[in-house]
Specification:
Distance between the termini: 49 Å
CATH topology of the largest domain: Rossmann fold
Bound molecules: 5-phosphoarabinonic acid
Oligomer: single chain
Shape: globular
Strand content: 5-15%
């Protein structure tokens, strides 16, 4: 279960404003659950935590086969077609046992050259993910990596080493999949990229990496019940509402701060989720993130003392999965013996508590979201918690949280510069 603390929030928002806003937040959630309102045709993600067992088995079995036949898997995708899987894999190092490499999320020749050379002589498979099947970055990476696969294994064997995850019938990728008999999984029509982590888009790379996807899904289904109709609903609604109220009174930025480096990419997933869902029509909190204590030695100064239009949300795990203690040193030349015998998890916790108190004294609103520890189930729970809260805040803002019209602007200009036919 996620707990929420917002100790200094009443300095910024009157308690009765929060009370008065709750019915509106609750109505926003009801309209989502009733599949009404802007973007109501893109609410299939609400069902993903209840994916039938046989579909999860199909994903897990394919994952197992990929592990057995290869040294590594290259996942090709951008935005919602890779961030969730990458976030889960990085968050759960204890579970991951098989190398999964991500490509297709940039156009850097250096990156692709290094990736191609690193695959020399390796048995590898490709998982190409694109809902539209036409996105330039993954399409280029797929062309490069498929060529490499064919050079290494021949065309017939190469086709067996490719798995595609795309729309059921539209897009260039679907055409290729059908004409070459490539194994494929479907991204449901009513699920947008950034809400697709609990579909094969996220589950297949996770299964290959070794993450028990059923545990992740059970955390997600628990969350979907608790944060929509259960007794924890109020936690999610309160978080969504506080973000909205703070934004409406001038807060411009939300920084998701974690003291767990393994959650760095989880914060990256959240930035895309919040940024693409809320940042439109001149509205929305700009989502940023920090990893502490690393960033206390860079962005910490700004959070303490810079412009005061920031909300800081801490994302904290109460207990580490594995701890270790600071060793005793007889000479104590570093004067660190006052910490000898103390678990690093406890020192990290004190750093969090000290930072929170400091930032509160620096005059920014602070919210803490805490999970007991980072496990497949709690990661599944967090995915759903943030999806729901972003969707509710989006509805309160009056935007459609499920489209991303702004993403097209750069594409049109880039295509014109590249001379794409028909643009
Ligand atoms: O959330 C989204 O919809 C986007 O970030 C997409 O995931 C991203 O643009 C990639 O699109 P596609 O999966 O069609 O290649």
């Amino acid at each position: 279960m996620i707990s929420l603390e917002a100790e200094n929030i009443n300095k910024f928002v009157a308690a009765d404003k929060i009370e008065k806003g709750m019915p509106e937040a609750s109505n926003a959630l009801s309209s989502l659950l009733g599949r009404k309102g802007a973007g109501s045709n893109m609410l299939g993600w609400l069902d993903l935590p209840y994916t039938p067992e046989r579909e999860l088995d199909a994903v897990s079995n394919t994952g197992k086969r990929i592990q057995d036949e290869n040294d590594c898997l290259v996942v090709i995708g951008i935005g919602g077609s890779y961030l969730g899987a990458r976030a889960a894999i990085e968050a759960l190092p204890e579970e991951t046992s098989f190398p999964v490499i991500f490509a297709g999320n940039n156009l850097s020749p250096g990156y692709h050259n290094r990736l191609l050379s690193s695959l020399d002589g390796k048995r590898f498979a490709l998982c190409v993910i694109s809902k539209s099947g036409t996105t330039t970055e993954p399409a280029i990476a797929f062309r490069l990596l498929r060529k490499k696969l064919i050079e290494q294994f021949g065309k017939k064997e190469a086709s067996k080493r490719i798995i595609a995850i795309t729309d059921i019938e539209s897009g260039a990728l679907r055409k290729m999949v059908d004409s070459e008999g490539i194994l494929s999984f479907v991204i449901p029509r009513d699920v947008g990229g950034r809400f697709s982590i609990l579909s094969p888009v996220g589950l297949l790379p996770c299964a290959v990496a070794g993450i028990p996807v059923k545990e992740m899904i059970s955390g997600a289904s628990y969350a979907m019940k608790q944060y929509t109709r259960g007794k924890e609903e109020i936690i999610m609604l309160r978080y969504a509402l506080l973000r909205h109220i703070l934004h409406s009174r001038g807060t411009a930025i939300e920084v998701l701060s974690t003291f767990h480096p393994e959650l760095d990419l989880f914060c990256g997933w959240w930035k895309q989720l919040a940024g693409e869902s809320e940042g439109k029509d001149g509205k929305g909190l700009f989502p940023a993130s920090t990893v502490m204590t690393t960033d206390l030695h860079s962005l910490g100064q700004f959070l303490q003392d810079g412009s005061r239009d920031i909300l800081e949300t801490f994302l904290i795990a109460e207990r580490p999965r594995r701890n270790l203690t600071v060793p005793e040193d007889k000479e104590n030349l570093d004067n660190l013996n006052y910490l000898a015998g103390r678990p690093l998890g406890e020192i990290n916790r004190k750093a969090y508590e000290g930072t929170k108190a400091a930032h509160i004294s620096g005059g920014i609103p602070v919210i803490s979201l805490q999970i007991p520890s980072i496990t497949p189930a709690s990661i599944g729970e967090l995915f759903v918690f943030f999806e729901l809260s972003v969707a509710v805040t989006g509805r309160l803002l009056g935007v459609n949280p499920f489209n991303q019209p702004g993403v097209e602007e750069y594409k049109t200009r880039m295509f014109r510069l590249l001379g794409k036919p028909g643009v």
